[in-house]
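Duplicate of earlier report; Coronin input re-posted below.
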Amino acid sequence: MSRRVVRQSKFRHVFGQAAKADQAYEDIRVSKVTWDSSFCAVNPKFLAIIVESGGGGAFMVLPLAKTGRVDKNYPLVTGHTAPVLDIDWCPHNDNVIASASDDTTIMVWQIPDYTPVRNITEAIITLEGHSKRVGILSWHPTARNVLLSAGGDNMIIIWNVGTGEVLLSLDDMHPDVIHSVCWNSNGSLLATTCKDKTLRIIDPRKGQVVAERFAAHEGMRPMRAVFTRQGHIFTTGFTRMSQRELGLWDPVTQLDAGGVCPGGWHHGRGPAPHPQACPPGEGWGPAAHRAHTHPCPAVLRRLKEPCWRPHLNNFEEPVALQEMDTSNGVLLPFYDPDSSIVYLCGKGDSSIRYFEITDEPPFVHYLNTFSSKEPQRGMGFMPKRGLDVSKCEIARFYKLHERKCEPIIMTVPRKSDLFQDDLYPDTPGPEPALEAEEWLSGQDAEPVLISLKDGYVPPKHRELRVTKRNILDVRPPSGPHRSQSASDAPVSQQHTLETLLEEIKALREQVQAQEQRITALENMLCELVDDTD
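Output:
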C-alpha cells in the first residue's frame, strides 16, 4: 500500500480573508478604461486608485486610515489630458507617485501627509519622450530617482526623475507592443514580454538582449513575467487553445569558463571533448541540474573564483509549465521574494490563486485559492514593510470592485503572539542603495534591508527635489564670438528662477498652514455648536 507524503512547508496553510465592511473604501468610481494594468497602487501610507474623470485623467490618493465612504467631492490628482493608464509609488519615498497616461506623458507627484482641500494639479515634473501612450511604469528597486516607462511606441525609457533627463532609451529591441517590464532584485536586468510572443532579458546599460525565448506561451493573448529571488523568471500566459498557463524559466544555463576545466571535465550543454564529460543537462546552473553523479574536483575547488561565474544564455526548456483554466482575463502575478510565494490575480476573476516556488520538483507548488463573489477590476499589493507582523500577515491586497476597494489579508496561522522570524526575514526598506549616476556608471547593489521585528515606522516627510539643468548651458554657441554679457545671461536667469521657486515654495507653505488653521477653527466651531445644543 502506497502512502502519500505531504510536502512540508510553513506556508501550506496560508489563508485569505476579506476585511470587515467598515475597513473598506466605499463609493469610488474605478476607471473603466480598457488596459491590462492593476489600476491600484499602495504603500504603508497611501492607497492610490485610478478613477473616472471627465475632461482628462485622474487618480485618487487616500490615507490608509481613511476607510468608509469617500466623499464625492474628495480631491483628486489631476493634470493629464487623457486617461491615466498606470500608477506606481516610489519605493524610496512614500509621498512620491508617478502616473502614466494616454496623453504620452509621465508625471511625478508629491503627495502631502495632510488631506488637501482641492485637486492636486501641479506635478513636480513632467517627463516627455514617448510618441504614443505610456502604459507601464516601474521604479528602480535600489537606485534613487530612477524610473522606467514603456509606451505604445515600443520604446523603453529610463529617466532620472531628479533632473528630468533621459538616462537610457531602448528603442530598437521590441518590434511590437510591450506587455510587461520587470526589474530583477538589484536592478541590473530587465525581463520584458512583447506582442511578438518573445520573452526577453535585457541589460539596459549595455543596451543589448542577453537572452530571449520565443513563444514561452504559445497563445496570442498578453503574457506577464517577473523575476524570482533565485534569478528564475515566472511567467503567465495562454496556450493555443486559450487556456491560461504559468511557467518557470531558468536563463542561467552554463558556466562562463570556455568549456573545459583543468581536470578535463566538460561543463555546459555543448558537445563534450573528453570521455569524462558531464551528461547533457548536468552542468552547473539550474537547481534541477545541480546534482552531479561525478562532480568535477576542479569545479568544487574553484566554484567561487571569478572565472567560474554563471552567464545568461538562451533558455529553451521550462523548469515548470502548468495549465490552469480557460478564461480571457490576463493573470497579473504579484511576487513576494521574502516568502517566494507568487499570487495570481486575473482581471474579471473573483479569486486569487497562490503558489510557492521552491528548488524541489515540481518547483511551482499550488497552495490555495481565495474566492469571493464579486469580480475584481484591479488589484493593489502592499509592500512587506506595510504589513501587521503581530497578526502573522504575510500579504495584503486591495481589491477593486466597481464602486469600492476591499482589503484582503493573507495570514499564516500561528498560536504564538511573538515575532515570527521565519515568516519575516529582513526586507527591503525605504533607503536607496545607489544614486542614479552610480547605477548608470555600472555599479550594482542589493536593496538595503530592514528588520520588521519592532514593526515598521515610516520616515518623516521627505520632499523630492528636482534639479533641472539649464538648457542654455549645453547649447552650442551661435557664432565664433560670445560677449561677456551673453555668457552671464544664463547665470542671471538661473538665479532669478531659483529666487522665484523659493518664493513659490514659501507661499505654498503659508497657504498650507492657513488651510490647517482654518480646519482647526472649523472643528472648534462645530464643538461649540454641539455644546450649545
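The longest helix spans residues 484-532.

Merging into the original ticket.
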